[in-house]
Amino acid sequence: MNVLVINCGSSSLKFQLINAETEDVLAKGICERIGIDGSLTYQPAGGEKVKTSLDMPTHTEAIQFVIDALTNAETGVVKSLDEIGAVGHRMVHGGEKFANSVIITEEVKKAVEECNDLAPLHNPANLIGVNACQKLMPNTPMVGVFDTAFHQTMPEKAFLYGLPYRYYEDYKVRRYGFHGTSHSFVSKRAAELIGKPYDQAKTIVCHLGNGSSVCAVMNGKSVDTSMGLTPLEGLTMGTRSGDIDPAIFEFIAKKENLDIDGIMEVLNKESGVYGISKGLSSDFRDLCDAADEGNKYAENALDVFSYRVAKYIGAYTAAMNGVDCIAFTAGIGENDHIVRAKVCSYLGYLGIEFDKELNDSVRGKEVTLSLPGSKVTVMIIPTNEELAIARETLALVK
Ligand code: ADP
C-alpha cells in the first residue's frame, strides 16, 4: 500500500509518498509560502528535483498540486489517486488524549482541536492539512501520528512540574515532550542493533536538530524527555533558550521593558546558540566554521550546547539506573562530529570508549562510534519520521 505522509505547517506542507510494504520512497517534496504566493518542489525517486511557482491561496490548492504532481503522466509515480491507500498526518500535540496513533474521525479532529491552546502554532495547521486532504480524497483513510504520543508513558514524577497541582488539574500543565516519533523509531532500532529485546533495553536518544530533545527510553517506554509543555524546555537549541531560571523573565522584562509576548519572542527566536554566538547563526555548520576560525562566541555556543546534552545524558542514566546505548540522531546528531565529540568527552565515567577517529570521518549513516570493549554503545542512528509515520499508518489501516 502507498501511504502519503503529510507534515503540514502554517505556510508549508512537506510530503512523501512511501510504498509502506517495501518502504521505498516513491516521491517527495514541499509546498512553501502557502497563502503568500506559493511554490512546489517535487522530486520523484531517481528523478530530478524541480521547483515551480504556483498560486496557492490555501492548503487545499497545495494538496491538489501535490496530487497533480504524483499522478502526472511524465513525472508522476502513480496512475491515479486510487493508488494512494492512506494518508498519514504528522500531528504535533495530542495532549493526554492520544497515547497512540489513530484513524482520524470527526471525534479525533475535535479532540485535536481541544489541544490547540497547547500548540497554537502547530495543531491548527495540522488540522488544516487533514481537512484539505479529506476534501480531495474523501474516501481515503487518514491516520494521525502524534509527536507527543510516545511520551505518554512517562510517570508522574517525570511529567509533573513543581507548580500548584491545580494547574495540572485545571489546565493540564505538565511535561508532554515532543519528537516522539523519532525517539520511538531510533530507540527501537538501537535495541535491534545492540541485540537486546526492546522491552529490556535502556537507551538515551539525542535528537539534535533545529529543535533538540533528549529522551530516556527504558524497556520500550519513554520514561523522561527534555522538552516540556512546549518545545521550549530542555536543551539549548538553534534559537530557543531551553532550560533557564524562570526569574530571568521578570528580570529582563523590567530591564528591556518587554511584555510576555516580547519575552517569548526572545526565548523562542533570539536565544539558543544563535543568541550565545551574538547572532552569528543558528546553523551548526556556520558555528563550527566560525569556531574553527577562532570565533570565541561560536565556540562558546558549541560548548554550551554540548555540555547541556551531556548533563541530560547524566540525568537520564540516573533515571534509568544505567544505560545500554546512547544514540545520536537528526541534523546535528547525524552530521556534526564536533558536537558528538564534545558530548562524548564528558562520558568517560560511564566506561565509554569512543572511537574519535571514526567519529571524525562519518556522518549521516548508521554506525557504532564506541569501541568493542566500551561498557555503553554509542551510535549514530539516522532518524526517519516519515517512514515511522508510514509504518504506523499501514498498521492501523490494515
Ligand atoms: P529540523 O528537522 O529540526 O528542522 P534538522 O534535523 O534538519 O532540523 O537539523 C538541522 C541542523 O542540522 C542545523 O543546525 C544544521 O546546521 C545541522 N546540520 C546539518 N548538516 C550538518 C553538517 N554537515 N554538519 C553540521 N551540522 C549540520
Task: Explain what this protein looks like in three dimensions.
This protein has 398 residues and is α/β, with parallel strands linked by helices. 39% of the residues lie in helices and 19% in strands. It has helices at residues 59-71, 106-114, 123-136, 156-159, 165-171, 180-194, 247-256, 260-269, 272-276, 284-292, 296-320, 330-335, 337-344, 356-361, 385-397, and strands at residues 2-8, 13-19, 24-32, 39-44, 50-53, 86-91, 102-103, 142-146, 202-208, 212-218, 221-225, 325-329, 367-368, 377-380. Strands 5-4-3-2-1-6-8-7 form an eight-stranded mixed sheet, with helices on both faces. The chain has a six-stranded mixed sheet with strand order 11-10-9-12-14-13, with helices on both faces. Helix 1 (59-71) crosses helix 3. The longest helix is centred in the last third of the chain and has 25 residues, at 296-320. The radius of gyration is 21 Å and the shape is globular. The N and C termini lie close together (9 Å). The mean pLDDT is 96. Adenosine-5'-diphosphate (ADP) binds at residues 209-211, 238, 283-285, 330-332, 335-336, 363.
Describe the secondary structure blueprint for this structure.
Elements: E1 2-8, E2 13-19, E3 24-32, E4 39-44, E5 50-53, H1 59-71, E6 86-91, E7 102-103, H2 106-114, H3 123-136, E8 142-146, H4 156-159, H5 165-171, H6 180-194, E9 202-208, E10 212-218, E11 221-225, H7 247-256, H8 260-269, H9 272-276, H10 284-292, H11 296-320, E12 325-329, H12 330-335, H13 337-344, H14 356-361, E13 367-368, E14 377-380, H15 385-397
This protein binds adenosine-5'-diphosphate.
